[in-house]
Amino acid sequence: MPAPRYDVLGIGNAIVDVIARTDEDFLLKHGMNKGTMALIDEARASAIYEAMGPAIETSGGSVANTIVGLASLGARTAFVGKIKDDSLGRAFAHDIRAAGVAFSTRPAARGPSTARCYVLVTPDGERTMNTYLGAAQDLHPADIDAEMVAASAILYLEGYLWDPKNAKDAFIEAAKIAHAAERTVALTLSDAFCVDRWRAEFLHLMRSRTVDLIFANESELHSLYQTADFDTAVKALRADVGAAVVTRSEKGCLVIGPEGTEAVPAFPVERVVDTTGAGDLFAAGFLAGLARGADDRTCGRLGALAAAEVIQHLGARPEASLQDLARENGLTD
Amino acid sequence: MPAPRYDVLGIGNAIVDVIARTDEDFLLKHGMNKGTMALIDEARASAIYEAMGPAIETSGGSVANTIVGLASLGARTAFVGKIKDDSLGRAFAHDIRAAGVAFSTRPAARGPSTARCYVLVTPDGERTMNTYLGAAQDLHPADIDAEMVAASAILYLEGYLWDPKNAKDAFIEAAKIAHAAERTVALTLSDAFCVDRWRAEFLHLMRSRTVDLIFANESELHSLYQTADFDTAVKALRADVGAAVVTRSEKGCLVIGPEGTEAVPAFPVERVVDTTGAGDLFAAGFLAGLARGADDRTCGRLGALAAAEVIQHLGARPEASLQDLARENGLTD
């Protein structure tokens, strides 16, 4: 295979985050499950927006956040995701390109508007998300550029792609192309409720070796195997997939590979402002290490470092140069 | 006169801020005057946006920021400003109403889009602004609700209203109504270059007693009197207007009234992240004190406190409850 042109190509929902601070009562009153992502229709999107406080708008989307984090770490990256040609969509495209990511998915000219996620941040820094998928519904296999997939060392996908109706076909198509080109296919399980919606299919992706590397946090892992016992779940995960990383917030992460399991500590954080993007940026750091052949521990530490940066400010995109941070912490040359 | 229904009614340009971090070179390369506001047309707006880094969008506008700060301090507030009925305009309307401000100016159905300000924040926390006025151009005297103006204890206006073509007529009309109802009219000089564009008219507003209270920072004051000598400028200001407040960044402020001048210190700040909104929030704190009859020093300290909050995060709207902060600092009951 020729040398890859991109280190990581991500495919995911292209979403603009609408972030507001809130209190616990608001979540209760509006029937939200704290810390998770719920899909909402346009009517509920309007009702939530009407009720929520003053907001800031910033580009988001789980895989898109990861890809921007990778670019901030100096990786060569590309993204595929569906926006509409409206002002939110143009902001999304501007932000991801301004971060140095190749992004050329054709925007939808008509149909629903660019996807929005209402992110409600409670005083403890935890975020609760409500996503209106909008134009992200229209990601089709035709949006996948086969040549670009084959030219990327790692293909990174999100479980959330199972929610829009045609995106899973695009996902499978891309994974096939990647494997034909002897590339690595990685998947984040996205969210415990997303896992609950698509458990059987996610397990099939793993067991059929459609994916090579899984990113999951503890609640996603418990949801996947419907067990409250962490060790039981880890054992099942090890049997089902070639490699996996389980993130455990301030407890760090477990890197599970063919040669064994390594526990890697988190980076200390002074004050958690907003956990939005913690998992996304962890994946960014980890994949940046993987792309340049770093060992498991270095990959895990890079993930922890990027996650630590993003939870200390509002929004899921890095504010500091992650490459500079990595250098200061001896995690890159 | 009947008791006022609002403590402060603000009239200003309704603007959405598009904020990005940048470096000094970017400002030089694009011919920007650091720390000031430049008016730009649509073509330059596109060129700047194209060139600038990833951004966040948040509601802004100088007077609008002040009014939201006042609401956060528990004052009863209203705002008049022109948006278009587009997604940025709807975000502006949502954010100001969600902050508790009465806002009912009819949005423009057609014509230019909602005003945007490209705010470039350098590593020292200083911000350089480029404003595309868009729909704000269409603020007319017909947008002024005479009954609402008469029912507001303080009318607060911005020098920036001299830039859109019809807004100054709305300004004069509102000031007349306010004075007929024995209310106070306050004006911020907005920006040194704005003062340079409209020096004679601003001096006329002061000398004709169309305005009762002036807010200015040092560079605006120097620009107004075209002198580099601070004391000379202050002396001229004292002669030209009934009352004034001159803000001096970390040196605090001077409160100039009929009975004399009082210097009030600033609040210490750990780290300046983004100075956007510092003057706006100072005015919010000061006017909140004035509305409840506090002494000059308390008004100045409230201004300093609100300014200190807003410069410690990105964006020009308060993130913390200013009323709680004021209480913790013994500046309110």
Report on the structure:
Two copies of one chain form a homodimer. With 333 residues, chain A is α/β, with parallel strands linked by helices. Chain A has one domain: Ribokinase (UDP-N-acetylmuramoyl-L-alanine:D-glutamate ligase, 3-Layer(aba) Sandwich), CATH 3.40.1190. Chain A is 39% helix and 21% strand. Chain A has twelve helices and 14 strands. In chain A, the strands form two sheets. In chain A, strands 6-5-1-9-10-11-12-13-14 form a nine-stranded mixed beta sheet, with helices on both faces. A five-stranded mixed beta sheet of chain A has the order 3-8-7-2-4, sandwiched between helices. The longest helix of chain A has 16 residues, at 192-207. The first copy, chain A, is globular. Chain A starts with 5 loop residues before the first strand and ends in a 5-residue tail after the last helix. In chain A, 56% of the residues are buried. The mean pLDDT of chain A is 96. Chain A binds chain B through residues 20-21, 49-50, 52-59, 68, 86-88, 91, 94-96, 98-99, 113, 313-315, 317, 319, and chain B through 20-21, 49-50, 52-59, 68, 86-88, 91, 94-96, 98-99, 113, 313-315, 317, 319.
Q: Which two chains form the greatest contact, residue counts included?
A: A-B, 28 and 28 residues
Strand order of the largest sheet of chain A: 6-5-1-9-10-11-12-13-14
Q: Any idea how many domains of chain A?
A: 1
Beta-strand share of residues of chain A: 15-25%
Structural class of chain A: alpha/beta
Topology:
The structure is a homodimer of 333-residue chains.
Chain A: E1 6-11, E2 15-21, H1 24-29, E3 37-39, H2 42-51, E4 56-59, H3 62-72, E5 77-80, H4 87-98, E6 102-103, E7 115-121, E8 127-132, H5 146-150, E9 152-158, H6 167-180, E10 184-188, H7 192-207, E11 213-217, H8 218-225, H9 230-240, E12 243-247, E13 253-257, E14 260-264, H10 278-291, H11 296-310, H12 322-328
Parallel strand pairs in A: 1-5, 1-9, 2-7, 3-8, 5-6, 9-10, 10-11, 11-12
Antiparallel strand pairs in A: 2-4, 7-8, 12-13, 13-14
Helix pairs in contact in A: 3-10, 7-8, 8-9, 10-11
